[in-house]
């Protein structure tokens, strides 16, 4: 296949239409050239030292009727995820306050269901309004929306609606059968019509071909207008899901995907999302160089573990990055965290601190990549698959 000369790339306008073949050619670009071009485009549109921090809270976990083959929350698979009822508004708002204190500027709420029922809407509206009143941006990922629901969410103060395309249209029915690719597009249309901003990305590592990865990226880039936020997820393989044995992708393929997302969607925030826990720091740094400028920050990323705030803050401090739109810098965040830890240990003792700060560790829950606390639970209990079972 003839390689596209990256120096002759057509500057992207939102009205341009990207064909799958054009995007496939980008994948064929020599790796370092591709990263360099993505970095150049990133610098034209953003401050490359800034990273947007979003915190994601699962407000209703597990028991989902959908059959997404990558997802441990589907009721069809036995993954050990415990079903939790919809959280109370007070709990949601308390978590949002905590996220803000740790430097997050956007708070995302996710619910594991096909879509919200009318009976859920009053609580969702109240929670959105109260989180918004904290001065944070608010995002929701609530699945398929019925007529009028997007307007209700917008009226309550929602800024962004997350609805991923998941994978390429051609690959969609191998991954999910309970809905169609076009259902996603329909909900995205309702979201745009209601005046909400769009957070829309996908997952790679679902046994898709490179052409299908290109198809996903072309589909995202051809949304008009392009999504303001583009989460790029790497599959987190969870035992019990059909994709647990999915083929591993080389790390360079993930970085290429980030770089191409940046090139195709120059004005969007490209979010390094699920799967970050499994990535070494050097790979995450390469993703930032290739144009990623947003992360999910701390706590759990729905049901798979995400590097905790301390680990994130240390990495971003080392990279001389700063949180976008926040008065805090990572040196201050680290100092605050250190002080919180010292105060807690002084009051409650070390054992209780560890139990409090590493509940997964002590409950023997499945997690991966370590908790970043320096308690030494990472390397000696990690199994070959990269997944560890931490027990006290
Ligand atoms: S990805 Fe969302 S819709 Fe699909 S099974 Fe998981 S929670 Fe349900």
From TrEMBL:
Residue ranges occupied by any Radical SAM core domain in the UniProt entry: 49-276
InterPro entries (UniProt xref): Aldolase_TIM (IPR013785), BATS_dom (IPR010722), Biotin_synth/BioAB (IPR002684), Biotin_synthase (IPR024177), Elp3/MiaA/NifB-like_rSAM (IPR006638), rSAM (IPR007197), rSAM_sf (IPR058240)
SUPFAM superfamilies in the record: Radical SAM enzymes (SSF102114)
EC number(s) reported in the record: 2.8.1.6
UniProt keyword annotation of Translocase present: no
Cofactor note: Binds 1 [2Fe-2S] cluster. The cluster is coordinated with 3 cysteines and 1 arginine.
Enzyme class of the recorded protein, top EC level: transferase
Protein name as annotated: Biotin synthase
GO molecular function: 2 iron, 2 sulfur cluster binding; 4 iron, 4 sulfur cluster binding; biotin synthase activity; iron ion binding
PROSITE patterns per UniProt: RADICAL_SAM
Assembly mode: Homodimer.
Pathway per the UniProt entry: Cofactor biosynthesis; biotin biosynthesis; biotin from 7,8-diaminononanoate: step 2/2
Function, in words: Catalyzes the conversion of dethiobiotin (DTB) to biotin by the insertion of a sulfur atom into dethiobiotin via a radical-based mechanism.
Protein family according to the UniProt entry: Belongs to the radical SAM superfamily. Biotin synthase family.
Taxonomic source organism: Psittacicella melopsittaci
